Amino acid sequence: QVQLVESGGRLVQDGGSLRLSCAASGGTFSAYAMGWFRQAPGKEREFVAGISRYGGSTVYADSVKGRFTISRDNAKNTVYLQMNSLKPEDTAVYYCAATFFSIKTISEGYNYWGQGTQVTVSS
Asked: In the chain, what is the straight-line distance between the N-terminal and C-terminal CA atoms, in Å?
């Protein structure tokens, strides 16, 4: 049983940067691969980025590749999403999620979810 709490979402200008954090508790953090998803109004939830248990592998959606970086600090039980060169189309609620063993790119593959944090990019 894992609890996840996202933070860091806010209003940011087009082209700006933002770092989201997700703090985990209630389990062994290194047992889980972690992912970030996002959902914009009227849109389906989509995969953004994933990271393996010890950070050795990462996976990114094409839409964010080269702009976003996922990382983790297992000593702090925290996963991060560094977002650079933000665009209005990045506006969404961003969710942190945990999954056993390995990275998945579909939401159905994840076991635990945070409450989400709002990121708004102004044009």
From this structure: 40
